[in-house]
Amino acid sequence: MPHELLFGSDAPTMHMPDVLARGMIGFHSGWRYIILLLLLAGIITGWQTSKGKKPFTGFTKRMGMFTMIAVDIQLIVGLVLYFFLLARYTDMHMGKLTDQMRMPEFRSIAVDHLIGMLIAIILIHIGYSKAKKATVDAVAGKKQFGYFLAALIIILLSIPWPFMSIHAWRGWF
Ligand code: HEM
Questions:
Q1: Could you give the CA distance from residue 4 to residue 153 in angstroms, rounded to a whole number?
Q2: Given the CA of residue 21, which atom of ligand 1 is nearest to it?
Q3: Residue 93 confidence (pLDDT) above 60
Q4: What region, left, alpha or beta, does residue 134 occupy, with left being phi > 0 and alpha being psi -120 to 50 degrees?
Q5: Among 117, 74, 92, 125, which Cα is nearest to 12's?
Q6: Domain span including residue 142
Q7: Residue 76 class from Cβ within 10 Å (0-12 exposed, 13-18 middle, 19+ buried)?
Q8: I want to staple 151 with a disulfide (CB 3.0 to 4.6 A). Which of 58, 120, 140, 169 is the partner?
Q9: Residue 79 lies in a domain
Q10: Residue 68 is assigned to a structural domain of this protein
């Protein structure tokens, strides 16, 4: 007996227009380098402040805020991409999702990338907030340095780099 279909068809229903998909993936992909540079600057200035070489003001303090804004922008774009990735691969069917979870290429983005990046973004938020609340400059620098370094390592491990065999088709930008 044919099963009842909500929209009268079982063809994929939710696809982003091609131009928008390419634009958003292109942005998400290139934005990684802005995040990596900001994180690096936050780590270096945080370290210098923790050693008493700099006050926790101006450039050092702003680096933390810019990094947080940059990852939040990436999170918003990522959430939209995530929704359409699920729609594209699973048509929002539980059975297809279970099937796809067996595919390393899908699982790597749908699970590893998502969890890794969410942890890194939370660490950046905690680091920024702890540094802002610290009353001693060296302590603020230490917080920014430590949390941002942990986030950088997790981000580097969670990016689907083209040198990974399952992501070889993805570009560097
Ligand atoms: C610091 C945070 C993040 C960085 C640096 C990052 C970086 C990247 C990179 C470099 C790609 C490969 C793009 C390409 O194919 O050229 C990618 C793909 C993707 N990211 Fe992220 N990402 C971040 C956070 C997130 C978050 C939080 C989500 C979900 C909520 C997300 C969802 C996705 C999805 C769904 C794709 C695959 C897009 C597709 O091929 O359809 N990302 N990400």
A1: 48
A2: 41
A3: yes
A4: beta
A5: 92
A6: 17-167
A7: exposed
A8: 120
A9: yes
A10: yes
Asked if the structure places residue 8 within a domain, the reply is no
Least confident window among 54-58, 126-130, 131-135, 155-159: 54-58
- Ligand 1 pocket, CB under 6 A: 25, 28-29, 32, 35, 71, 74-75, 78-79, 81-82, 85, 109, 113-114, 117-118, 120, 155, 159-160, 170-171
- Taking only the tens place, the pLDDT of each residue in 137-149 is 999 999 999 999 9
Q: Which of 111, 39, 126 is nearest to 74 (CA)?
A: 39
Number of domains forming the structure of the chain: 1
What count of Cα atoms within 13 Å lies in the side-chain half-sphere of residue 172? 1
pLDDT in tens, 6-44: 444 455 556 788 889 999 999 999 999 999 999 999 999
Does the residue 118 lie in any domain? yes
Positive/negative CA dihedral, 112, 69, 161, 15 = positive
Q: What was the pLDDT predicted at 5?
A: 47
Stronger pLDDT, 11 or 64, i.e. the higher one: 64
